[in-house]
Design goal:
D-Maltodextrin-Binding Protein, domain 2, 283 residues, single chain, five-stranded mixed β-sheet
Length: 283
């Protein structure tokens, strides 16, 4: 049976529709659009980036939707690379790092650079500068001379996000020696609850993460005034980290990473990254 006869049986032909060689213009147009769509879909390479699920405001799950400042920046950056299509999968920090180290995922964001993570094969360019601080209760701060971190915090109890090493090696050496006690929870909100309940004296995290956690808990100004930054520990940069690929599952990794770095640098230099951060906190 020829194509024209087949179309007729399916009632594709409409009144006053012109046919060429037994095939309608409408069918030709439909097949052309479908063909072009398939070509475009095939041209895009899907990139899956794994991310933290509880690092508010930087990378987290908002219900079932990936959210956060890094998520916005990277989504915008990949949107400027027409050859790629981005998927973001959120997992707990420790699981994400384990998956990355074991070569089960191509990339994870936004861990900091650490000497002990020498198995990470490459990082993106620095994306955001984050300021790490120690937040303590006023009662603790007023009763101690706190000039040097962590030396002057001997005997203190701290909250910490599980898996995070923001407080530095000297701090964790004091923890191992029993000079500082440590309680760990998975989220900023949980650790802030420890602090506000008086369960710990201090909490170390990035400044914007602490502010976002307080906003999440709807902490009012009167309660917020009961806590103060007692030390600026340092600045950290967030990255996209690329792990080992022993089975060559991602042969396109370096090409993607190079292209992403180029766009991120353009966004940084134009002020676009700063604008995205300001817009995020304007909500």
């Amino acid at each position: 049976m020829d194509l024209g006869r087949f179309c007729h049986l399916l009632h594709i032909r409409k009144p006053h529709q012109r046919f060429i060689g037994g095939v309608s213009y409408a069918l030709i147009l439909s097949l052309t659009v479908l063909s072009v769509s398939i070509v475009h879909a095939q041209d895009k390479l899907q990139i899956t980036l794994y991310s933290e699920d509880n690092n508010i405001p930087y990378a987290f799950l908002d219900g079932a939707r990936p959210a956060g400042i890094y998520t916005r920046i990277l989504s915008e950056a990949v949107a400027r690379l027409p050859q790629y299509e981005l998927e973001i999968v959120n997992v707990p920090f420790r699981r994400g790092m384990d998956l990355l180290e074991n070569g089960e995922i191509m990339a994870f964001f936004p861990p900091y650079q650490r000497q002990e993570r020498d198995w990470i094969e490459r990082y993106s360019i620095p994306i955001l500068s984050e300021t790490v601080v120690a937040l303590c209760s006023n009662d603790y701060a007023r009763s101690h001379e706190l000039g040097i971190f962590p030396d002057d915090f001997k005997g203190a109890s701290f909250a910490n996000n599980a898996g995070y090493r923001l407080a530095g090696d000297d701090f964790f050496a004091m923890v191992d020696a029993g000079d500082i006690t440590l309680e760990e929870a998975n989220t900023t909100a949980s650790n802030l609850r420890f602090l506000m309940a008086g369960r710990v004296d201090c909490y170390v995290n990035e400044r914007m993460a602490i502010l976002a956690g307080m906003r999440e808990l709807d902490v009012d100004r009167d309660l917020a005034r009961l806590f103060n930054e007692t030390a600026i520990i340092g600045q950290e940069f967030g990255f996209v980290a690329y792990g080992p690929d022993p089975q060559n599952r991602w042969p396109y990794r370096d090409a993607f990473a190079d292209a992403l770095d180029t766009v991120l640098a353009e966004m940084r230099d134009s002020g676009e990254i700063d604008r995205l951060v300001v817009d995020y906190f304007a909500y």
